[in-house]
Amino acid sequence: MNRFPRLVIALAVLLSGLALLPYVGLPAAAVNWQRYAGAYPYQSPTLEIDHDSGKPGSFLNVTGHHYPANSTATIQINNHTIGTVQTDATGDFSFQMNTANADEGTYFVTVTINPSATTKFTLDQNAPLYSQSGSGPTIIVPAGIAFTRFVYLPIVYRQ
Amino acid sequence: MVKRPLSLCMNTNQDIASPKAGRRMDKLWGAVRSWLVSMDWRTLAAFGLPFALYLLTLAPTIYNLDSAELTTAAATGGIVRATGYPLYLLLGYFWSRLPIGDVGYRMNLFSAFNGALTVMLADRILRRWRIGPWATFGALGLLACATFFWALSLIAEVYTLHTALMAALMLSLLRWGDDPTPRRLALVGFVMGASLGHHAATVLLIPGSMWYVLTVAPRKALAPRALLLAAGAVLLGLSVYLVLPLRYGGSPAFNYAGYYDATGTFKPVNLQTLSGVWWLVSGRAFARQMLAYNGNDLWSQVGQYWTYLWREFFAIGIGPGLLGLVFLLRRNWRVGGMLLLMFIGNAAFYTDYRVTDKDTMFLPTDLIWALWLGVGYHELITWVRDARDELTHRWGLRLLHSAMIGFVLITAAWNWRLVNLSHDWSARERGETILREVEPGALILGWWDTVPIVEYLQLAEGQRPDVWALNRFLIGQDELRLLILKEVEHRPVYIDSPPTSLPATLEARSVGLLYRLRPKTDLSKTAEGNNEIVSQAK
């Protein structure tokens, strides 16, 4: 009688992997060259903004391409970490920036995973006001981080 | 009067019917019978069953991406990108001379052979551990039918040769463990060197190998004579790297170790210098993809690897595999430690490697998991067999055996439709379509799914030698732009996808599978419809 559990335990071990089947699933995608056709052409990530200047209070839309797929990217504006955004299965993402609290000035937006890309925009009272039009998560550009002064240094080099 | 067997008496062939011939036939039959009796049927099945499965599903001709690159390089004496794979190129050169199918098919067959060889060598390992045939069939059957192991046994690729060499390395280590003589250690060194000469990822097996050698018989391993012999054998195995400078010296038509400049001149890495060879074999071209994840992304990759492993062993192999890992560590911590270190090395490295096709690179961990699975199955069978009551003993064993065979058959049936390439001519058709569509003297610029297959058709089959195909992997963005501007003036230029920095003076028009690049003025002269223009530079 006490031997019967042996078989039950053996079968339980044998079939234990099936317990996670609902979460993991079975192989479903065909393995062929089309699946990996885009594997090696390394493309640098790109970051685009729909308007490079706007009135404070504008909503600006940022889209990124060629980032690592299904990863979390960190958003920095003028070296301040503002939030994160998730890339999709093709390495793209988009988000909106709400500039209602932001000051006039220049802003550099950098989105980083391991590769990173940067774009910039300027807030100016004389620029057009853009209302909310895009999709994706919204991040708020905080006050007090605008760049308002730039120092341009000459480059000297020896030939 | 010599009495002859009836069957021979009835034969009208005078030579065979002679007494001498009869004795010869008896002798021959006796030899065949004793050969059949003495034959190692288990080894034959361990090789033959997966090989037959792979033959039935093998890609019938040249395949795309890396397969086209490897096939072309192996067959034409060329050079591939990092990490060079000199042993594959050397063996492939001879294998591609087999008088069967086209060159592409032959190199696909080479992968099938190596996949089956891996299973056969894994069987030898399990036999050393006295794992019974049911457990071995169940474990190695799941390995042979695992999605990626199976898929990569059907096309020209480097991975199944790598797993075969890995299994050979483990076997040579175990053999040395039985009798730690300097000669046996030298064999380990030779296999290690040859394996390094094939795939640089063999370095991931070194910690496990060192662990085994230094825990089994450190004094014997570190004795000067043994060390000297082993070092010499490693160097002998590594001597396969001489293939690279030798091939480089012949200025091969197919060379992926280098880059193109803006004039379209190929600048090969000098493989007759140590620094050049080191650049290639160390994989520096892919350095930024290594150790590429951190934080949450790394955990996400770890999760994806376990999902991969789960699916490879069809969920069934996970529980018994873990059981086997634990039992092996408890029963023989030296061997168990060796396998664990090899597993961790490979799983950790590729988990943290940022490429989209890394699912194809985990086969070494598949092999190790299959060995653990064999041990786990064996333990379950032994445990149930040792039951005292007849019912459990008899029916329990039958149930387990049936389940182990059944799982293999279900996995094979399920994965067949995912991996079967026996009717896949798509790569050849793509290449031949491109060559048919481009004008004489054309320049074709493309990525991996376009150019290697064209180069195969040109170099291995002699099609369209007038066309110049250039892989965009081998040229930078700026150089590509300048090259296009230069070449578009005096030859037809085609590209697989227009670059984002396409010069403003050019337009790209869809022509079959490619885009034809032309100066804008040419289009206006030929008065071709603007509706055909699919891409225009800003």
The percentage of residues in β strands of chain A lies in 25-35%
Regions with little confidence, pLDDT below 50 for 5+ residues of chain A = none
Strand order of the largest sheet of chain A: 2-8-7-4-5
Class from secondary-structure proportions of chain A: mainly beta
Helix tally of chain A? 2
Distance between the termini of chain A: 92 Å
The proportion of residues in beta strands of chain B is: 5-15%
Mean pLDDT of chain B: 90
- Give the strand tally of chain B: 8
Write the layout of secondary structure elements.
The complex is a heterodimer of chains A (159) and B (538).
Chain A: H1 4-15, H2 21-24, E1 46-49, E2 53-54, E3 59-65, E4 72-77, E5 80-86, E6 93-98, E7 105-112, E8 116-123, E9 138-140
Parallel strand pairs in A: 2-8, 6-9
Antiparallel strand pairs in A: 1-3, 3-6, 4-5, 4-7, 7-8
Chain B: H1 6-9, H2 14-17, H3 19-38, H4 41-57, H5 66-76, H6 86-95, H7 103-128, H8 133-145, H9 147-151, H10 159-178, H11 182-196, H12 206-216, H13 218-222, H14 224-238, H15 243-249, E1 258-260, E2 266-268, H16 274-281, H17 295-312, H18 318-331, H19 333-351, H20 363-385, H21 390-419, H22 426-437, E3 443-446, H23 451-459, E4 468-471, H24 477-487, E5 493-495, E6 506-511, E7 514-519, H25 520-526, E8 533-536
Parallel strand pairs in B: 3-4, 3-5
Antiparallel strand pairs in B: 1-2, 5-7, 6-7, 6-8
Task: List the main descriptive attributes of the protein structure presented here.
heterodimer; A: 159 residues; mainly beta; five-stranded mixed sheet; four-stranded mixed sheet; 10% helix; B: 538 residues; alpha/beta; six-stranded mixed sheet; two-stranded antiparallel ribbon; 25 helices; disordered N terminus; disordered C terminus
